[in-house]
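Try this one yourself first.
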């Protein structure tokens, strides 16, 4: 059996550790990475291969091969963006920033939502199940996301939930603005909690 983690979203510190596998104390055989590896500035992805799987790719010439190829393969701009993003990840102490910002975000979400949401978070990845005072609303997430968008904030929302993933490079003021806009949107859709 092979364990594969899709860390396209969660990799490179999003959950507060280098990878979600680290957050949950797991060692997968393969980790798919993207987004964070280039800071989202260039098409770049990769597969990190563990010691148990790597020997399968080291067979005699021609017997086994790992030769991924696609339109953007070996793109020097993407590769340069990836190297720069990884260098910056260490230079700015991204994991420290994630820890600090996630604590601010968590406390702010609890303040803004009150009893109108159940919060789940790991690092700078937050999900909120919305709890309308008049009972479940299967469109609450989409309504809150639309209300946020009208105010200039893009979040993901559908069914009865919303998801937020602020940038590692956010400042306290950015988190505060996100929380303020979210609070206004939740008040609009679910009613003022005060």
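Now uncover the answer:
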């Amino acid at each position: 059996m092979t364990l594969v983690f899709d860390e396209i979203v969660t990799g490179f510190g999003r959950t507060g550790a280098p990878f979600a596998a680290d957050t949950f104390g797991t060692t997968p055989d393969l980790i798919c990475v993207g987004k964070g590896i280039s800071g989202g500035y260039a098409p770049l992805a990769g597969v990190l291969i563990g010691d148990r799987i790597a020997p399968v790719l080291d067979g005699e010439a021609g017997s086994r091969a790992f030769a991924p190829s696609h339109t953007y393969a070996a793109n020097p701009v993407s590769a340069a963006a990836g190297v720069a993003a990884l260098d910056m990840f260490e230079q700015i102490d991204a994991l420290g920033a994630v820890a600090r910002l996630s604590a601010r975000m968590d406390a702010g979400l609890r303040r803004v939502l009150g009893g109108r949401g159940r919060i789940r978070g790991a690092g700078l990845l937050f999900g909120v199940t919305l709890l309308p005072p008049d009972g479940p609303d299967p469109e609450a997430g989409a309504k809150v996301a639309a209300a946020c968008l009208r105010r200039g904030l893009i979040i993901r929302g559908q069914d009865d939930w919303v998801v937020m993933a602020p940038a590692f490079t956010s400042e306290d003021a950015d988190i505060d603005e996100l929380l303020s806009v979210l609070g206004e949107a939740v008040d609009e859709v679910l009613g003022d909690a005060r």
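Discussion: The longest helix spans residues 94-113. Strands lie at 4-7, 30-33, 46-49, 117-122, 125-130, 156-158, 161-164.
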